[in-house]
Amino acid sequence: MASIFSKIVNGEIPAWKVAEDDKFLAFLDINPLAEGHTLVIPKKEVDYIFDIEDPLYAEYFTFAKKVSKAVREVIPCKRIGVAVIGLEVPHAHIHLIPINNIYDIDFSRPKLKFEPEQFKATAAKIAAKVQL
Ligand code: AMP
Fold first, then answer.
1. Torsion angles phi and psi, residue 126, rounded to 5
2. Ligand 1 pocket mutation pick from 30, 45, 108 by most atoms within 8 angstroms of CB
3. 73-104: per-residue pLDDT in tens?
4. How many domains does the chain have?
């Protein structure tokens, strides 16, 4: 069965997309730890990130780097924190999270709630800054 992220890739379910090319997609996490919390995925469905073959693996991180720059331009923060968890969705994804301190990337914290309009506006602002 296709992962929920493959369904996003295939347009079967919506997402707040911020960047896309033929191999990768970035979109906002629906349960964010911070405004601008973005997930970056390979379109090819691979569960475990370290099973992604070379050279796709390196290309994937290069794509994530470009997205991280755009997130940082839009969301004031000290850094973009990077996390790979993968316990919930079996489709590789890199979390890009604007952080100012260690607690901002604590996944045990309650997630933030945003209205659809805010997700839409944040995604549009980040998308406008992405340079692939
Ligand atoms: P994990 O697999 O533990 O890294 O967690 C999966 C992440 O994907 C969580 O942060 C979820 O909020 C996020 N997530 C799950 N479904 C969606 C979706 N349809 N759109 C955006 N983010 C999602």
1. -65, -45
2. 30
3. 999 999 999 999 999 999 999 999 999 999 99
4. 1
